[in-house]
Amino acid sequence: MTTGIRTASGRALSEVTLDALRAGTLERGDLRISREQLEAQAAAADGAGLRQLAENLRRAAELTAVANDRVFAIYERLRPGRATHAELVTLAQELAEESLPRLAAFVREAADAYAARDIVKALR
Amino acid sequence: MRSKRFERLDARPINKETFITPWPEVGLATMHSPFDPKPGIAIRDGVIVEMDGVARDDFDLVERFIAGHAIDVNVAPRAMATPSVEIARMIVDINVPRSAVLDVVSGCTPAKLVDVINQMNVLEMMMGLAKMRARRTPANQAHVTNRKENPALLAADAAEAALRGFAEVETTAAVARYAPLNALALLVGSQTGRPGVLTQCAVEEATNLKLGFKGFTSYSETLSVYATERAFVDGDDTPWSKSFLAAAYASRGIKTRFTSGAGAPALMGHAQGRSMLYLEARSLLATRAAGSQGSQNGSISCIALPEALPDGVRVVLAENLIAMLLGMEVAAGNDALSSHSEIRKAAKLMLQFIPGTDFITSGYGAIPRPDNMFGGGNFDVTELDDWYVLQRDLRIDGGIVPADEAQVLAVRERAVRALQAVFEALGIPAIREDEIRMAITAFDSGDMVDRDRVADIDAAQRLLDGETTVVDVIAALDRKGYSDVAASILEMQRQRVIGDYLQPAAIFDADFHVLSALTDPNDYRGPGTGYRLDGERWQAIQALPRAWDPRRFGDDLAAASSERWLVDAGPARTGGEPEVVVAVGPAFGAAIGHTLGGLAHRDVLAALIAGIEGEGLPARVIRIQHTSDCAFIGHAGAQLSGSGIAIGVQAKGTTVIHRRDLRPLDNLELFAQAPNIDLDTYRSIGRNAALHALGKPAAPIPVRSDNTVRLRLIVQTTLMHLRETECVQREREPIELRVAIDRGARAAVAGSAVGA
After folding, report:
1. How many cross-chain Cβ pairs, A to B, lie less than 8 Å apart?
2. B263 and which of B203, B302, B666, B731 could share a cystine (Cβ 3.0–4.6 Å)?
3. How far is CA B261 from CA B38, B226, B298, B564, in A?
4. Would you name the residues of B annotated as active-site residues?
5. Where does B194-263 have alpha helices with state H?
6. A16 to chain B: nearest residue by CA?
7. Listed residue (A44, A19, A15) closest to A29, CA to CA
């Protein structure tokens, strides 16, 4: 079912065609999935009893608003020993302020888990 | 003292392998370790405060992640209270729907899952796979790599793999900096071969993510998960960082699959005395907790380690089943080399091949083994026909369909030319005409010219760092006359916008319909349900290019020459003088011109006659018309023979020496395997028949023994005999034959008899 689907840039999917590409009107954002569409996929996963997949797709929905470089940067910070507990908490707050509540909660949870297991960056 | 038989056994391929006794303290135990925790759970206020004997405060990262995300606290009390054997029976019971099993399993801890699986034998687990896998339609994945990282060859091989029906095609880079070119070659090649094939390039995460974001790849299965905190940290990740990566890929519409496998923790020294299955259960629960749609498991590159132990192959099936019980897509292993023994390899494969999995292998080598840069190649391109035959034998859909040579060559050429066009447009070092020619017909990268690797790597780096995306690739293809390939790659991008292929076990058919756990859910409930190999698909799987129509066989059987060299000479008389009768079957030298072994009937008859005449007796040739049975032909001949001795010969060459007073099915000597009889033997048969007629002692003729004859020629035997039987005329009496064998042929045969 593709009726009514819009790309991340807000363009109707039906307009994403070779003709549009030939006319030079296809933008990068026209080939990106939208936050709404990922929320819809999350709902479908939930409906099929796939709770964890749904949660991840909801985090993905929020990530559609985050630029590539920042996505790489957040991933890097979540790796072991890369950030202090405080730095991760700050990151979570930033995400919350950007209306990315699920990502914020996820980073916050990681911060506490890392602190409890002492795999945060050592303070020097 | 050594037994010659034991020496022979020692030299068998299977004995190149290592077999050890279990050592659970270091994790060298497959399904069970005495140090595995006992299943248990305690929940307070909706929070798991104890799991498998570990208190919440003592949870390591993995346990914390599993307890927080994987286990449904509402189901857990009921699930954990259900006896493991009862859950195991639910898995096998066709009257219990898949959804009910998924529900109860959602409340199980790692130790509980292990306890459930340990109730089951392999047959029951296979039943579990058939019922519990996510997608109804099974599929397969291919590896496409080569040692030289030659892009033309990669594109051609990807196209061929796609044409053969692999739903996913995976590459990697031996030299990491090549990755962008390899990904591009795979993308263009695969979409030329068959639209909708998913591709990935397995490299380090950051590069991998970039390639995905650029649209050069459409899935990723590089996300390793580990069973313990230490292993995770050694892998420079945590469950949270991996889960974040999965979300990052999904945010750009890219499918991901996590990977783990039995034996990896023991290999890394992180087993902590736990069994391989218990640790894998933890990895799989972490995978589910992270929200991955699926898992690549089945021991993967560690396969030889569990195989050194008892239950070593059963444990692989067990982990496949656990992943399915957790509702995830399973790419089931069978990728890394699992044995020196073809018997062991094939037997192991059957555990996934027969029940079916979402991907029966997580990488079938669609290239020769030495070009497999995954270190894989359990099965490779030289064994494709074996796979096809297994599918046909068992009526199993192993995910691929036969392709004929012309089709393959055409699609390889088109793929390389399409890639050539893209390279030209993007300023990547050109693919030359001679390179194209080599790539079309190449066996492996040894058949390819060496490219300027420095220039290629340089171009690859620019591709990765620059602004070029899949849009530029599509535009280039469209401009250069590959609009269909351009349209397919664009459609792959449109599918990213839709995101249906982010759901579990998603693949595309050639019309870009998504087959997934949601659109093609496995509904197996016993006979008459679930995936059945029928219709066009079954026709395609049957249609091996080598299969031929047996109705055509008779066309080639008639005597090579139309010249009549056996002439009817009226009803056969009963002889009165010493002689040997050569009684031939109804089709001999008529409807059929040569034996099963390819000897011309004229030469056979000349040899028999030469053998008889060599002992000073005349030979008389008659045709038996009322039967095609060798014994009865010989017996009928003997009734007419002056000496009572006759040789019976069927058209296919089977021969008997008969005597008048014997029962029809008795004989003096029988030569049952026609292809093992050469002209010298036929001459000896003539000679022995003459000796019998003269009452002289005749030593039995030794016949070459070849046990494969029946295997090779039973079809031809059947068809030849069928043809001869068609010539039977029940009411017709034997007739005399005049033999017009030209002097030269006869002299040649007689001459060689003297020589022998």
Report:
1. 178
2. B302
3. 22, 9, 6, 72
4. 141, 143, 170, 221, 296, 335, 362
5. 205-214, 229-234, 239-251
6. B494
7. A15
* Chain B interface, best mutation among A7, A31, A38, by max B CB count within 10 A: A31
Q: What is the pLDDT of residues B618-677, one digit of tens each?
A: 999 999 999 999 999 999 999 999 999 999 999 999 999 999 999 999 999 999 988 999
Span A80-103, mean pLDDT?
A: 97
What is the DSSP secondary-structure string of A49-113? T-HHHHHHHHHHHHHTTS-HHHHHHHHHHHSTTSS-HHHHHHHHHHHHHTT-HHHHHHHHHHHHH
- Strand B294-296 to B645-649 pairing: unpaired
d(C-alpha B566, C-alpha B740), whole Å? 6
**Residue B95, by phi and psi: left (phi above 0), alpha (psi -120 to 50) or beta?**
alpha
Render B416-427 in DSSP notation, one character per residue. HHHHHHHHHHHT
Whole-angstrom distance, CA of residue B202 vs CA of residue B374: 9
pTM: 0.94
Distance CA B653, CA B245 (A): 70
pLDDT of B440 higher than 70:
yes
Chain A residues in contact with B499 (beta carbon < 8 A): 33, 37-38, 40-41
Test A56 with B496 for CB contact under 8 angstroms.
no
Shortest CB distance from A113 goes to which of B233, B240, B288?
B240
Token representation of residue B124: 């029951």
Do the beta carbons of residue B229 and residue B61 sit within 8 Å? Answer: yes
Q: Which two tokens stand for residue B117?
A: 């699986």
Instruction: Look at A37 and B487 and tell me if their CB atoms are within 8 Å.
Output: no
